[in-house]
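Request from the bench team (R.T.):
"We need a structural guess for the complex before ordering more adenosine-5'-triphosphate. Sequence and SMILES attached. Just send the tokens back."

Command: build protein-adenosine-5'-triphosphate structure.
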Amino acid sequence: MEITYTPGRSPVPVARLRSVSMVFADGTHALDDISIELRQSEFVSLVGPSGCGKSTVLRLLAGFEVPSTGAVETTGDTVGYVFQEPTLLPWRTVAANVTLPAQLTGLPAATARDRAGDVLRRVGLTGFERHRPGQLSGGMRMRVSIARALMLRPRLFLFDEPFGALDEITRERLNEELSSLFLTEPFSGLFVTHSVPEAVFLSTRVLVMSARPGRIVADVAVPFGWPRAPGLRYTPEFAALASRVSTALRDACEVTS
Ligand SMILES: Nc1ncnc2c1ncn2[C@@H]1O[C@H](COP(=O)(O)OP(=O)(O)OP(=O)(O)O)[C@@H](O)[C@H]1O
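Reply to R.T.: structure attached below.
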């Protein structure tokens, strides 16, 4: 595999939250003075207790929400968003689901077809173009969802716990595929997960959030090289780093509970 850059080493910011607090209309205080910077070619995971505001961070970066105080800054480039549910249209084929964003943005049909073939190949779904979502496994449906997001060539890719509902083996395989994709596509990723091993395996950096209202309580660099072999998970270095993240997470839960 050809790596065209050094993951995590660029100083160029692609997205920032600056001292952001978020209080919803019903008074729920979701985020408290949170600052996050995501740089080019970084893949950052966000872990934290349930309800601490992880999805809110993604929604702010996507522009779906406006902060109560503070600033959200992005480059304005295309954003890809992958949700926990694949959210596919059941009556459309795989190819027709994947080309939907291209249709909605007015990409010429021939370009969309070519690009769909390319992104489906990248997620290992060549040959399934004519299948409907109901004929696919959960992991395959999630691959379609990722392929659909790739269609618009996002520079900023936001993942809201996309593999949480999958079995362990499928999840690990998709982690490996996503990490390969990260090396060949020019996006910066912010990945929400409840799984510490998943966060460490995928990331150049892991951010740990406190319980609500969410704050960043730890910023752990992941120094492992790329590409990442599946066996990395069984090394003492991996276990030590996962343990650091888990400890920070446990401390974060205990401080506020
Ligand atoms: N539109 C909204 N109005 C009111 N409260 C909201 C709204 N959206 C989210 N919240 C609340 O804000 C808090 C943070 O929600 P968020 O979904 O960001 O947490 P999360 O860390 O992603 O949770 P989980 O890990 O369980 O998915 C929660 O208490 C949630 O109930």
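Two things stood out. The two ends are 46 Å apart (CA to CA). The first strand starts at residue 13 and ends at 23.
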